[in-house]
Amino acid sequence: xxxxAGPPPTGGGSEQQRLKLLAVTAxxxxxxxxxxxxxxxxxxxxxxxxxxxxxxxxxxxxxxVLDDNDVSHADGVIIAADKDVxxxxxxxxxxxxxxxAEGIHHPEQLIERVRSAPVHTAGAAxxxxxSGGGKERSVAYKALMNGVSYMIPFVVVGGLLIAIxxxxxGHTDPSGGLVIPKDSFWMDINNIGVIGFKLMVxxxxxxxxxxxxxxxxxxxxxxxxWIANTGELYDSKAGAGFxxxxxTGFLAGYLVLWxxxxxxxxxxxxxxxxxxxxxxxxxxxxxxxxxxxGKPISWVFQHLTDWLSGMxxxxxxxLGAILGLMIAFDMGGPVNKTAFLFGTGLIATGNQTVMGMCxxxxxxxxxxxxxxxxxRRRLYTEQERETGLAALFMGCFGISEGAIPFAAxxxxxxxxxxxxxxxxxxAIAGVAGVEDAVPHGGPIVAVxxxxxxxxxxxxxxxxxxxxxxxxxxxxxxxxxxxxKGAAPVAGLGVAGPLEPALVGVGAGAAAGGAAGAVVAxxxxxxxxxxxxxxxxxxxxxxxxxxxxxxxxxxxTEQTVKVALDAHDKEAAxxxxxxxxxxxxxxxxxxxxxxxxxxxxxQGTTGLGEEIAxxxxxxxxxxxxxxxxxxxxxxxxxxxLDGTKARLVFMISVPEAAAGDEHLRILAxxxxxxxxxxxxxxxxAAPDGAAVLEVLSEVR
Length: 699
Hints:
Layout: E1 2-3, E2 20-26, H1 32-47, E3 51-56, H2 68-72, E4 76-81, E5 95-98, H3 100-105, H4 107-114, E6 119-120, H5 139-169, E7 171-173, E8 177-179, H6 185-213, H7 218-228, H8 241-260, H9 272-309, H10 316-330, H11 334-347, H12 353-361, H13 364-375, H14 382-396, H15 404-409, H16 411-432, E9 435-436, H17 443-447, E10 451-452, H18 454-486, H19 540-545, E11 560-561, H20 569-581, H21 589-602, E12 606-608, E13 611-612, E14 615-617, E15 625-635, E16 645-653, H22 661-672, H23 676-684, H24 688-695
Parallel strand pairs: 2-3, 2-4, 4-5, 11-15, 13-16, 14-16
Antiparallel strand pairs: 1-6, 7-8, 9-10, 12-13, 15-16
Helix pairs in contact: 1-4, 1-22, 5-6, 5-14, 6-7, 6-8, 7-8, 7-9, 8-9, 9-11, 10-11, 10-12, 10-16, 11-12, 12-16, 13-14, 13-16, 13-18, 16-18, 20-21, 23-24
């Protein structure tokens, strides 16, 4: 909970009375907007003679973590973030929580508002700002994305290991379906993958709870997720799957928050977070799920089975559509398992058509979601696109769980799309009389000869996949447009494709708010570098090797152009690529241009303030290189604030570039370019040498 505090220091004439503030900035991908917000806050504080230290939680490494001494002397803390930030270290301090866009556009207001912000107390949930909160992702959204981001590696590793073991070690067996010999090497690989899948659901639940209730919520969240996924504990043939894990994650998180509010004697307080809270919350949640939630799940399972048993004489199209809907709904939960076990049970009676309907629907979800990430890449983060490729592979082997990360992150859009595609696939397989002799699904069963009517089986799978993919991108696109349209500042404070990210570079955190290793950085006052240090080298190799240019020598007078000729974005990118080619570091000019344009398709690299930073990670260049050009009239770049780009930087690094050099460059530029005086000097510089001297301030 929060409570009011006494008046903050007002900043008198002595050093002791000078206001001291802290800030933390973070965006989901941890690249440009993290540092833009940090620089804006630092500038606003400096203009008011206020001491401010800013911690950035970005993607380039640990910089300037706020230590205990900083916190103890601080008069207030501003959290400008669109991802989960640990507030436990700020107990007893005034804390204002807003979205990262607020830090960029209204830093002065935040500094004024933090003086009267509520005091953060032990165990309190993050307090949203009183105004402008619509630009900040909700606690529920951040918690959900936190769980999804930690779950994804388990889905990918578990699913791919199972798929590999099935493809290389599995075979059809009339008595046992698709099997792997028990004592074989591939069975060991399969077992390892199964462990990954078993851990997937508890991880999702645990880290949802962790994002809400901090460390004391981790154990009850994970154990609750395990219980939810273990149907035997509440007399169900199927666990509640990922939907049950989401429920237990939120229940655990908010239960822990409630327990934290209970007043206890001081001698008990030290053991509350490590003993009392985890034990009480875990026991209460576990018993609640087994005795209260579990019984309805078992009831649903039994009655769905009975209902399906009465439909065996129904039209094949209707039955196939219903089975497809059920298979696609929860991907491993009671509804999915009801349909699957219904089809499996009928194989022994000689009726293989029902399993054929299920087999066609099973791969549609991962294949459809994977295809969606390919046809509309800009709607997805880099991590989601990588997960999409893994989902495509898992779909080929009938592992429907490959779609769970997408369904968990966007349930309102993905689950209906999955169900529609599954229904279409099941209906087509039903009307075509497709049969499956083994209790498994996906193209793998057709390849191994367990399916009759193979052509129509693949037709059903392909059409269902296309329906799911197209429906998904349509619903996600509509959702994104509505969300962006609702915010006065279009997209700056949210996860998504508008956040600059290099092509081929993982976004680090998940869409939307994934927790990862905390990285932070000291925002120090930028100081000019003597002109001699910024002198152009005159040769391509000297700029790279002697480090006498700007940005570690990647930008030299050779890659500076004071007057850009192009009048549109595509022409400007080609002109910038030709500028970089002067260094001899561009091996394939056309590929560099194509890669940069593909990046633009994912979302504009126009940052606003008349700035654009197109960038690409590609082997079309042999080493990192940066170029800069000015446009007198400005180039329409689709910038978020509607301004044309007059200051254009282009960054290109090879795929094999060591570390996160490209992110370091982007962060340095983004931060420095928030200084209006710096931009004015850059525009006023008369020639390449003068431009380079101004740019030497970027450090």
